[in-house]
Write a structure and sequence with these properties.
The chain is an alpha/beta fold. The protein has a single domain, classed as Glutaredoxin. It has five helices and seven strands, in the order βββαβαβαββαα. Strands 5-4-3-6-7 form a five-stranded mixed β-sheet. It has a two-stranded antiparallel ribbon with strand order 1-2. α4 runs antiparallel to α5. It is globular and about 45 Å long. About 45% of the residues are buried. The N terminus and C terminus are likely disordered.
């Protein structure tokens, strides 16, 4: 999985989430998450959409997904939105769908989405959205983080921290190669680790299927064994 540096919000950016665990009030540690298995496959979860209708992530089956976990109080999350809009528009014809998972109060998310004209689908929750984040191996809220899957539902990469265009394009190109059958998943994950590390300002990557999500840090331990 790909690991970037999680940008810690300033105290002014933080609004504690009702029902969140105590650690949600603390500033996240850059790139660090607790030891937990990162899944090989997209976990099943369901959250309310903008209208409050329960929507399963399985509703997007058959698409390659960019699942962005975010919150309205998170400054780097807000900075990512134009990029996510661009990715959703440019990659839609190639079977890629961007999904925003907002871990925040519903009224704040809806107001924010309207103000900033977020066009891609949003799933919204508080504790249930935190549970979804945990399913990806991220127990301590470290926002933003982005999950990339191929059309078969295999988890190709989890990028911790603010996503930028070079990293997004590189990961999505790998996803496209997987979807076209040009590369096998283990080889794709391994090559992605090295390619992301080589990018300017990139951080070490942990390949999919690692048994320890704490390997997704900003130091040399990031390259974990599959």
């Amino acid at each position: 999985m790909a690991a970037g540096e999680a940008s810690a919000p300033s105290p002014g950016d933080l609004t504690p989430l009702a029902g969140a665990p105590p650690e949600a009030d603390a500033l996240p540690v850059a790139g660090a998450v607790p030891a937990r298995k990162i899944p090989d496959r997209l976990p099943s979860f369901s959250l309310g959409d903008r209208d409050g209708k329960p929507t399963s992530i399985a509703a997007f089956a058959g698409k390659s997904l960019v699942i962005n976990f975010w919150a309205t109080w998170c400054a780097p999350c807000r900075r990512e939105i134009p990029l996510l809009e661009t990715l959703n528009a440019e990659w839609a014809a190639r079977g890629v769908r961007v999904i925003g998972v907002a871990v925040d109060h519903r009224d704040k998310v809806l107001e924010f989405a309207e103000r900033f004209k977020i066009g891609y689908p949003l799933l919204i929750g508080d504790q249930d959205a935190l549970d979804a984040a945990t399913a990806f191996g991220v127990e301590t809220p470290v926002f933003p983080f982005t999950v990339f899957t191929d059309r078969r539902g295999d988890v190709v990469a989890v990028f911790l921290g603010e996503l930028h265009r070079p990293q997004a394009d590189l990961i999505l190109k790998t996803v496209q190669d997987l979807d076209a059958g040009r590369v096998l998943l283990p080889a794709a994950r391994e090559s992605l680790v090295e390619a992301l590390r080589a990018l300017p300002d990139a951080h070490p990557a942990a390949p999919g299927g690692t048994n320890d999500a704490s390997s997704a840090t900003t130091d040399a331990r990031g390259a974990a064994n599959t």
